Amino acid sequence: MLPKDLLSLEDLHKEDMEEILARARFFKEREGKGDHSSLKGKNIVISFWEPSTRTRVSFELAARKLGARVIDYVPDAGSEAKDESIEDTIKTLTALGADALVFRYKLPGLLGKISTRVEMPLISGGEGCYQHPTQALLDLFTLQEERLSLRGLKVVMVGDILHSRVARSHFYALPAFGAELILVAPPVLLPLELVPPGAEYTFNLETALSRGDVIYLLRVQQERQGKGLLPSLSEYASLFGLNEKRLSLLKKEAVIMHPGPVNQGIEVSPGAISYLEAYQPDKLLLQKQVQNGVYIRMAVLDLLLGGRG
Ligand code: CP
Question: What is the distance in A from the centroid of ligand 1 to the CA of 157?
Answer without folding.
Answer: 17
